[in-house]
Amino acid sequence: xxxxxxTELLKHLRQVMKxxxxxxxxxxxxxxxxxxxxxxxxxxxxxxxxxxxxxxxxSAGTAIVTEQxxxxxxxxxxxxxxxxxxxxxxxxxxxxxKDTPTQEDWLVSVLPEGxxxxxxxxxxxxxxxxxxxxxxxxxGHDLVPVKENLIDTIWTDCPQRPCKPLIxxxxxxxxxxxxxxxxxxxxxxxxxxxxxxxxxxxxxxxxLFNLRGSDVEYNPVFFAYAVIGMNTIRLFIDGDRMMDPAxxxxxxxxxxxxxxxxxxxxxxxxxxxxxxxxxxGLSPKExxxxxxxxxxxxxxxxxxxxRYLTPYTPICIAKAVKNPAExxxxxxxxxxxxxxxxxxxxxxxxxxxxxxxxxxVAADKAEEFRSQQKDFVELSFATISSTGPNGAIIxxxxxxxxxxxxxxxxxxxxxxxxxxxxxxxxxxxxxxxGTPSAYEKECFTYVLKGHIAVSxxxxxxxxxxxxxxxxxxxxxxxxxxxxLHGTGHGVGSFLNVHEGPCGIxxxxxxxxxxxxxxxxxxxxxxxxxxxxxxxxENVVLVIPAETKYxxxxxxxxxxxxxxxxxxxxxxxxxxxxxxxxxxxxxxYHQQCREVVGAELERQGRxxxxxxxxxxxxxxxxxx
Amino acid sequence: xxxxxxTELLKHLRQVMKxxxxxxxxxxxxxxxxxxxxxxxxxxxxxxxxxxxxxxxxSAGTAIVTEQxxxxxxxxxxxxxxxxxxxxxxxxxxxxxKDTPTQEDWLVSVLPEGxxxxxxxxxxxxxxxxxxxxxxxxxGHDLVPVKENLIDTIWTDCPQRPCKPLIxxxxxxxxxxxxxxxxxxxxxxxxxxxxxxxxxxxxxxxxLFNLRGSDVEYNPVFFAYAVIGMNTIRLFIDGDRMMDPAxxxxxxxxxxxxxxxxxxxxxxxxxxxxxxxxxxGLSPKExxxxxxxxxxxxxxxxxxxxRYLTPYTPICIAKAVKNPAExxxxxxxxxxxxxxxxxxxxxxxxxxxxxxxxxxVAADKAEEFRSQQKDFVELSFATISSTGPNGAIIxxxxxxxxxxxxxxxxxxxxxxxxxxxxxxxxxxxxxxxGTPSAYEKECFTYVLKGHIAVSxxxxxxxxxxxxxxxxxxxxxxxxxxxxLHGTGHGVGSFLNVHEGPCGIxxxxxxxxxxxxxxxxxxxxxxxxxxxxxxxxENVVLVIPAETKYxxxxxxxxxxxxxxxxxxxxxxxxxxxxxxxxxxxxxxYHQQCREVVGAELERQGRxxxxxxxxxxxxxxxxxx
Lengths: 623, 623
What we know:
Oligomer: homodimer
Low-confidence stretches of chain A: none
Largest sheet of chain A: 6 strands, mixed
CATH topology of the largest domain in chain A: Creatine Amidinohydrolase
Mean pLDDT of chain A: 96
Subunit structure (chains A, B): Homodimer.
Organism (chains A, B): Emberiza fucata
Radius of gyration of chain A: 25 Å
Enzyme class (chains A, B): hydrolase
Number of strands of chain A: 28
Number of domains of chain A: 3
Largest interface: A-B, 30 and 31 residues
CATH class of the largest domain in chain A: Alpha Beta
Keywords (chains A, B): Acetylation, Aminopeptidase, Cytoplasm, Hydrolase, Manganese, Metal-binding, Metalloprotease, Protease
């Protein structure tokens, strides 16, 4: 990787920072955050403005350019990568280290008195604007919204905003029609006494209307906003996508509908002016509901007294609780995904000893097998295919420079998943194609114990996921080991592979309680820098648990694994397992055999079936 | 309990709310919080203003009186008690229930436009003022500080503020001199670039100067403030306590000292004016450090730009990490405490079958045995002595109306502790003096498993206590059971039995990480309304743990029980224990035998020693 030369770009940016064509008054600093106007985690190429200006293309980072300085804040995952990708114009601000200033504090330390700090009000979330502007104001500076994105003004070959065709999902996939979702949303709105709801997150728009797109890689979403009133529905979307007869039919655009279900289609770019009009027309006590992470621009469109902001929107919460149709879809998707992985691992077992399989080859092969499955759409994230020391890089993605050949002497870690029309998958398996060392087996078994501790946990209704995180670590902690990431995240239903509002992590306390129907991952790991990485990840469904007693009639929950891919028994030190854990593994493998075995049989994949049967032999008894 | 008749009192209060002698402008509402000017959990009788005006004397509750209404907010522990103690003038606001308005929302709903809401600025913490005043202001009202406490103006027989003699603690108890504590504090101040530190919490003043008092029952503290500058020490304290030669000698008041260690003694009541003078004399960049829970009055004395507020003060954090002298003192105190409890339980075993021992008699007997021990000062909280259904009332304190006789047919729960000059104790044991049912044993054993899971947990340095809370619940959760309180709290060293900044609870995420030397309780429980209560509580010391590996060189921690009182084996269903748990119990009991046995022998308490030996027989092997 050679760094991007940014001298000219920065010069150009500093010019437009003073150019009255773009800024009312010159700005002495300009902030380039990571996100897009929807605060998405995965973004389209046209939104990779921070990567454009700096060269650093990791998933998290904020650039700030002043007349004298250019600085980049990113976290521990990306210190090395950012240092490689940026030239000497840039200062790397290592977040999480003690001496690294916050963006605000740094700005205060470098800016001349009474400076203006500009930012695109569509990209910065309202809560972040508030925090930042408070600090700047108290130091005598001003955070100012710059309407035109200054990066866009200098990005001459900026790719177009994607505008790909939509996929309509019928009831067999979604379980609930978009009309019924609107009805449910309006009833939540009535409960909170709000008159309007603004849908800003792309996956929320997609979920609400039972539509999918492909504007962003890996995430089946499309650029759009929606504003739902008690009697109106406005959808802000561009292109000729609304000309598609299937979409028109799906949204009943040409039917005579009750007026409250009539969808008014408006240009994507008109959201701000339409919302300002809504804001201007509010009567006292008419509130507008927005996510507190919505952009500053949209939040400001509603006068403060009329805003109703919550960390999680009612759509985010409804979307997290999968209905039976979605759950069944997720089950089907996971069976197909397991078929693909049985094929892959069977293939790897044969090919790895030949010394010709690289991480990239293995990743491509995984995609190939997945793409053979019904309703396959695309991958759900960039495959993490890593062997030996690369496995210890938690967010590794093989590229030619780092591409390593799989061998019988190293642990191989594959974290991968796909979007199928009926569901989203995300699974990690850690395999050894030769003979693992006692130490590797020991570490693998601790991780497995943690995986089982979460998967088999029984907990009261109303428990938040973060309360389960320590269960995943306990076996590792006992031996002085640990892993430095959370244990699980929510998973969408043919939607984003990461979704709120629930998860299993020591870091988040703002998560919503787990309830039956929610789907999360269970993925503890252990990473030894320079040697290997281990992670065992299943997607699991929250289900009611039967218990002997029922304190305060609260009811209990537990998890059911949706992922049904064998866990390599060769890596397990059976003597470190309790009887209960051993039974868990055997029952899990029995289920893989029955469910995935039947599908392999049906698809005539006999060799992979034999592999599955071999890999799911019961564990030897604990000695 | 008959309710307090408050009609005349409320009439009187409403008069002073309009009396220009006390208020600059009439206030339409007056708030009476629970606390004192130091935000103490336990308060002196003269500070029980909320109990005086309402009759409700629980430990938590806020009264608000308007011209038309009188309302009391309290939590689930006190719904019944508050309803019994208050007359019909009062409306009970049940906190935690869905339909209960917050104090602010309620005020907004009942107040006439543009109202003034008064509160004593010394009693309300600054963070609470901020929250409340924001809501009131946005609804067109004003929160106003009322200098003179309006309850005090109508409380004609208000007890005097206590002003009891002080106890000086030498190095053998404290391990560190007050001078060295000041030096350490000033170095923390220099690190944060603050010039002044204001000590507002009573236990922080006591700890800093190695002094103790008895102004508040159960808490060995005294009414005082301190303001520490980089070169000055000001102690605000009343009475002739500074005339005591031992105190003068201890504080070196009459010695020729370096000026920066010279303590300037000022009247308790002069804190505000002195602090205002400090505030007025600050140069730019001179910050003043206060707890964010300090009173609004003291916080306001410092202009906003000069305030440095943190949730935990450096004293709070330093105080939590016990030094070797303190740890040794705590050990000694717990051995003496165990001697007293061995005597008590031996006595109860003989006396309970006679049917003459009530909860109050048992509590008194516990105090009697404790008071026989060296350096006993007083109890550390009101003894929870509860049998049968009373045990299910988590914060029960026996009173004549509820006093129940212990019997061989009911579970008895004793949660008690004492202040010794060398340490503070807090221990809960649950006993059966007849034959427990299989169900009682089952529940007890789940609680014991939870207790052991925390006590034996190994976890990385830097782990916050709340991440351990679920370990205590796992065995109960497996069977659909749970308990509705946290698992542990910090314990002072001959100081408050509840202290920050660490603890073990699912409720708190603002706790500081556990570190070696901290002392907390481990007290899971199970409560069956109307039947029985079970709790097993030890005070435990955080110690370094030896582990097989040492990830990222972080080091690991675990707990060592300081409490050494047998856990009744009769209540244990051994078949529900794992081998590891059984060993834990046997090793714990072996330690009780050795350590407490030796002390019983030394004190010639042979009958109690025989009881101890009987109660610490190893458990039968797991079948």
